[in-house]
Fold:
Amino acid sequence: MIRLFDLIFSVFGLIILLPVLTLLWIIGLYSNGSPIFKQKRIGHKQKPFLLIKFRTMHINTKSVPTHLIDSSAITPFGHFLRRTKLDELPQLLNVLLGDMSLVGPRPCLSSQKKLITERKKRGVFGVKPGITGLAQVTNIDMKKPTLLAKTDSKMVENMNLYLYFYYITKTFFLILKNKV
Structure:
């Protein structure tokens, strides 16, 4: 059932947001020459996939977790995209393609060994990664891999349709309040 909602929301989201996506793509093209960023991430059953986002950092920035990068690597337009979470919109394509769900644990990089170990121990890789979830609405990030894996595990164990809609709605309101 969740996959059906993922498909419906991603298709409608891409259609409705097409003007916004196009505008952001054009601005990104002019601000840094390369508006789209693709990065290999670890997904369902630890299968790698290419995550699609709007570029927020300079083109030659090292591919490491965001919390390990100096803030000067983020472009001025990138700051805006991150603050508003608009950099995440292209991930609707990942949802449509079946690599991700709207709700699930955020996909990690293969270099995040501690997080991978902790998630593997807790069965977190048994579900598709998501754009939002419990960790995002409670402001837990990848700087705390054990806590993040425990939080992801709790979300995975308790996931149902009500929580799916709750996390989406909560994320939307947190974005409006600029708290995510």
Remarks:
- The two ends are 27 Å apart (CA to CA).
- The CA atoms of residues 45 and 90 lie 22 Å apart.
- The longest strand covers residues 36-42.
- Helices lie at 2-16, 18-32, 76-84, 91-97, 113-121, 134-137, 145-158, 161-176.
